[in-house]
Amino acid sequence: MDERQERYSRQRLFAPIGEAGQKKLEESAVCIIGMGALGAVLANHMVRAGVGHVRFVDRDYVEKSNLQRQMLYDEEDVREGLPKAIAAERKLRRINSDVRIEALVADVTVHNIDQLLDGVDLVLDGTDNFETRFLLNDACFRNGIPFTYGGAVSSRGMSAILVPGKTPCLRCFLPSADGSGQTCDTIGVIAPVVDIVASYQATEALKFLVGADTARRNSLVTFDLWNNHYFEMKLGEPAKQCPCCQLKEYPALQVTERDSTISLCGRSTVQIAGNGPIQLEQWHKRLAPAAVRTEMNAYLLRVELPEGEKLVLFPDGRVLVQGTDDIIRAKTIYARYIGS
After folding, report:
1. Is residue 232 located within the same domain as residue 274?
2. Annotated catalytic, 242?
3. Could you list the residue range(s) of the whole structural domain that residue 282 is in?
4. How confident is the model over 227-248, as pLDDT tens digits?
């Protein structure tokens, strides 16, 4: 038995996948949007299963509060201030060197979403907010790419696979989200919920990639582990006036002014897109004299300010203003230290 056969032997013995299914996995490409709790589990499953090309993208870096549930990361990643995508790439390359792993440190926006989804067979939702989920939903349905939706908060989870032309889209059963809902940063989350949601997503992904269409679940699963609740809702027919999958308007893909500055729900952080690439060393020299404390690595620069807020600068031009969720205050801090 050669090394490849040995690695996937138990998966190949599973009749619904078999040798033919394993070959399909090795010829497949997926994209994971978000490498937090869900994304870390999803990437782990996809890489270990032998999916040929695994691309993932995340805008954030590893913090200590992540370690309770984000299984790919450790204390050394926190000390180094590594972006999640980079930390995940390092771990996953040691797990399966045969898989093409493509890690991208970036914010997912209307401007880059089509590029991020280019050439993939399936998208896996590892996001933590509905603004990005609706962007993902609209882009996937416009481009005819299926995606697995997942969400986890507190002890509750939900999951579905959405396939353009065969199922409704996310907007059909979740028409809108105003950003005021509960999040892991406001009411917490227990790690087992994350594992179960991501495992539901990963299983539906494997079914789709090996062509097991009749086994694919046509329902939205919701559950509450702590209170022992479980419910399945049939996806049914698309909403007749759905602006995405029926009217083809794709509202999340319309460029608006709000794309450049967003408050990250529950995190006392505002993200500002910036005006172009940032040279970290240059900005380190510029900001250090005015800072209480600075930390820099190859991926980001963290600056603790006398006002109490912190700035986190990324090479792609993004700046996080931490310590406030007031966009006006964040813009004032940004203008003071970075410029207009």
Report:
1. no
2. no
3. 259-337
4. 999 999 999 999 999 999 999 9
